Amino acid sequence: MNRRRAFALALAASALVSGMGAARPTPSPSPSPSPSPSPSPSPSASPTPTPSPSATQSDGTLQILTYRGYAEYGGTSPKANWVGSFEKETGCRIARIDTVQTADEMAARVGQRPYDVITAGPVLAAGLIEAKQVQAIDPAKVSGYDDLDERFRDMATVSGKVYGVPYLWAYDEFVYDSAKVRGGGLGQAFASDRVALRDSPLTIADAALAEGSAKDPYELSETELGKAMTLLERNKDRTYWRNPVDLVKGFATGSLDYAQMTPYHRLLLQTAGKPVKVIETRKTTGWVDSWMLGANVPDTTCAYRWLNWVTEPDAQRDAAAWVGMAPANDKACKGRARTMCETYGVGDDKRLDRVVFAVRPPGGCGAEDGECTDYAAWTERWRELAK
């Protein structure tokens, strides 16, 4: 590998570690993240000038739990401190921001203390609603709510009640190194031992799409789940990635021919000179991360000011550019976020219609050959596969 190529790949790895905005702009997510667990340093709490011991106090402060990059606070660079202006404009003080890297860390952290607002992907959101750890949101109190993509708003609505304010979203692609292999189909990627799959039970949905017999990749009967797992179990030596830096390393060293990644990851590799191309598929999987309102918060004034803040184009623009995901408010698709919006196809309904956005596998729903399996069954099967 020549020096220029090595330097470009090092920059790509740096961007994945620190957020795309740090290199110049999902997911964790992973997702983050969101649906994707990945190891990382311990969750961090931002230093606070006015600490508050409890989110239930009516003292004009906020305690926030979110993913790294979703709400940056502190630091000398204005691009890394867009939350500071929230305090100036609203009069609410941010007492604490706890940040995590992965969905697993988020799930572990959420019950440790009360939070006013929480960022959650589809699996965690469903669990929080079921456990009554979040409360319904009144969209009439969220200015700009109608500016958010309707499909994402619908995903955060349960039994007629709104539980989330959509923030950032992403989807997965399967890519291949065109200098080493011919693209083939998704089945070829799953059959390879030189492929990296996201280490998440939700990857079972991608296997179901590749297998092709299930109508809905998130509503799988025992038989359909078995077929998806059979595809996954054909090669147990493949890589299950948790940290996206591993993708850069894998393609840089030649140890990977295929990988499951977001368009942002693919863009970084292509910018670094790697000849990765996308395997064309009829459908792909995606996810949306939303802000949720913590339960048992008697005074929600500042929490609603925060929800108003994160729906606005400026906040979504900064976050999308920083973490390499797409904003739920397409008015954010200017300036720093323009590249991410173009990369993910914001506003392109034909392109987004290909994305099957994640839900927590519900269990008990009707499939043609029996009841749907629940997320616990998916988690157990995945644990056995990836151990």
Structure description:
With 387 residues, the protein is of the alpha/beta class. It has a domain at 22-170 and 286-356: D-Maltodextrin-Binding Protein, domain 2 (3-Layer(aba) Sandwich). Helix content is 36%, strand content 19%. The chain has helices spanning 3-18, 20-23, 84-90, 103-109, 122-130, 150-155, 186-191, 203-211, 222-233, 245-253, 263-271, 301-311, 313-323, 338-344, 349-352, 375-386, and strands at residues 44-45, 61-67, 93-100, 117-120, 134-135, 157-158, 161-162, 165-171, 173-177, 195-198, 239-241, 258-261, 276-278, 284-294, 326-327, 355-357, 366-367, 370-371. Strands 1, 2, 3, 4, 5, 8, 14, 15 and 16 form a nine-stranded mixed beta sheet that branches. It has a five-stranded mixed beta sheet with strand order 11-10-12-9-13. Helix 1 (3-18) packs antiparallel against helix 11 (263-271) and helix 9 (222-233) runs parallel beside helix 16 (375-386). The longest helix is centred in the N-terminal third of the chain and has 16 residues, at 3-18.
Task: Supply database-style keywords.
36% helix, alpha/beta, 19% strand, 387 residues, 18 strands
Task: Outline the fold blueprint.
Elements: H1 3-18, H2 20-23, E1 44-45, E2 61-67, H3 84-90, E3 93-100, H4 103-109, E4 117-120, H5 122-130, E5 134-135, H6 150-155, E6 157-158, E7 161-162, E8 165-171, E9 173-177, H7 186-191, E10 195-198, H8 203-211, H9 222-233, E11 239-241, H10 245-253, E12 258-261, H11 263-271, E13 276-278, E14 284-294, H12 301-311, H13 313-323, E15 326-327, H14 338-344, H15 349-352, E16 355-357, E17 366-367, E18 370-371, H16 375-386
Parallel strand pairs: 2-3, 2-4, 10-11, 10-12, 14-16
Antiparallel strand pairs: 1-3, 4-14, 5-14, 6-7, 8-14, 8-15, 9-12, 9-13, 17-18
